[in-house]
Each structure stands twice: as C-alpha cells, then as structure tokens.
What we know:
The protein has 366 residues and is an alpha/beta fold. The chain has one domain: Aldolase class I (TIM Barrel, Alpha-Beta Barrel). It has 15 helices and 11 strands. Strand 5, helix 8 (169-177) and strand 6 (182-186) form a beta-alpha-beta unit. Helix 2 (22-30) packs parallel to helix 3, helix 8 (169-177) packs parallel to helix 9 (199-209) and helix 10 (223-231) packs across helix 15 (344-364). It is globular, with a radius of gyration of 20 Å. It comes from Amycolatopsis dongchuanensis. This is Nitronate monooxygenase family protein.
Amino acid sequence: MHTALCDTLGIEHPIIGFTPSEHVAAAISKAGGLGVLGCVRFNDADELDRVLDWMDEHTGGRPYGVDVVMPAKVPTEGTQVDLDKLIPEEHKAFVERTLKDLGVPELPEDAEQRAGVLGWLHSVARSHVEVALRHPIKLIANALGSPPVDVIEQAHAHGVPVAALAGKAEHARRHVRNGVDFVVAQGYEAGGHTGEIGSMVLLPEIVDAVDAPVLAAGGIGSGRQVAAALALGAAGVWTGSLWLATEEYLQTMPASAAMQTALVRATSSDTVRTRIYTGKPARLLKTRWTQAWAAPDAPEPLPMPLQNLLVSPAHNRLHETNDPELVSMPAGQIIGRIDRVRPVAEIIEDLLSGYEEALARLEKTR
Length: 366
C-alpha cells in the first residue's frame, strides 16, 4: 500500500490517524502511518508543548502531525467568564435538570477536569500552531475548514503542509484557493464534525473538483474500504473513530474504559448527528445524554463555541460515572466494526492485509 502521499509525508502507508491521544498518535506513526494529535483538549499551550516533546521522544523519528480547531464565526475570543455570560439561563437549567434526571452526581474534588471551551477559540488555536511549529511536525490540519490565510502562510514558511476538512466540493475548491495542500473529504458517516453527503458520492466529487491530493474520511475501518477509497481517487485515508478502542488510548485517558465498552457494544446504527456537542453538526455515540437533547422540551443548541462551553462540565461528570450508557463521545458509523479493544499495530496490520486481499479479489475478476 503506497501512494505519492507516502513520499510527500515520509510515511510507509497512506494511512493518517487522527486522535486526541499522544500514545495512539505515536503508535500510528511507529506502525508506518501518520499519527495526527488533536490539540483542542489543550487549553494551555505549555501543556501542548510538553506533550509534543513526548511525541518527539516516542515516535522513533517517524513523522507526525497536529490537528487544530479554528471556528470561523464570532464569538471567537474572550475569556471563559466573558463567554459564559452569553449562555441563556434556560440552557444552563436544562443541563442541570438533565444531569439530575440521569442520576449523574457532582464531580469529586480530586476528579480530572477535561479541557473545555478555550481550545475552540482562534487565539488558543493560533497558540497551538505556534507551539507545534517549534516541533518537527509534518502536517497541520484544521478540523473546521480552511485556517486563516496567514496561518497557512506561517505553516508553509516552516515547510509544513496544511490539510482542511471538506463536506462539499465547493468547500474543497475554497480550501485550495486559500492555499491548503491536502483536502480531507469527510463523508456523512464520519465521527465528529461532518456534512450531509455520503463518502461514496463525496469523494469522487472532490477528487474531480480540485488539483490537490484528497484524503478519504468517513466509514473507513478495513482494508477493503481503504482499497475502495484509493479506487475512487483518494491519495490516502483519514481515520479517527477506528483508534478510540485501542489499548494505547487508555494510556492517555485511563477514565475512558466505559467509552470503550460502549463502542464495543455499539452497532453502526448507534450514532446520531447533532449540534449538541459543539454547536456545529457532529456525529456522536448515541446515549441517554443525546436522547435527552432530542426530547421535545430540550432547547436548541447554541452556536459554537457557546454550546461546548455549556456542556463541557456536564461531559466531565458523565465520563466520571463510568457508565457506558452516559458517556458523550464523537464517533462515526464505522464503530459497528469495533468488536474488542486492540493495540494500534494490530489494526494497522489488519488494514494492510485486508487491502491486499481486496486487490487479490479484484484481480480474479479481470
């Protein structure tokens, strides 16, 4: 499994793996892919710097990248206190009432506080870029489309290419006009922020629309699906949900065992696309929490980043319950393929062998 993307990024296989876990990202890179560390969890740029130092030491000299989040719409700045004033009291009351109805207790004093809204602000995302460019990264991706042109130019000045997610061909064309190097065609099946067009339709549309390498995202969890993506014109694949149920993920986030239990139990029907996580449409694991927000008395989700500010404390409490029916987590429809917790290297091996088997089947049809 080798494409021109491998030569460009210095990797063995055209498999890019997005993850909020540095342990998973490092393992993907060491297995021959490109691990991309999600930075949104870092409110503190110094903490990100320390984690990237760890990545430098634990990737064996293999390439890795980072993913930042730069929302395009106001409000994008201000302190958490300033933004909190913009949240309606009825929304706060609904969250508290829902947590009570679900039997979710307050956090214990020694509980870990996960990052909240600040990681979604332009100012914080820019600090992430500045920190990342002090390290030997090979890619910067923006999860919400094109970063500002000056950020793209800043990355290029350091010799680092930029990737941006697109849910429509028009988005992809705009990204390339802005200077983006790689377009991630993210289909409806994908976890997290995703559009309304399925991957089988979206990918060839974007490949035909732009003169730039396109990465396929959404619904990719086997070697057969990698082969299909490359057959449709992709230069490589962008994977995310596949890495949630890995042994390495627990090294970064030990409290995620309940989430992994929920993923192993889930089918491909057990996700929902909703704005309740960040304010923009995102695909989540379906739980009692998501069902509460779908009830007739639930308020409309707030715009980004206010929705994330509203629900982040609730997510901390939900995760602390260790209840698989309550955890709140972005996840794509590919979770239906997850049947156990595995090491990253084993998943990479399965992708490679499944790809070869798919090619062999096709060869028999000639």
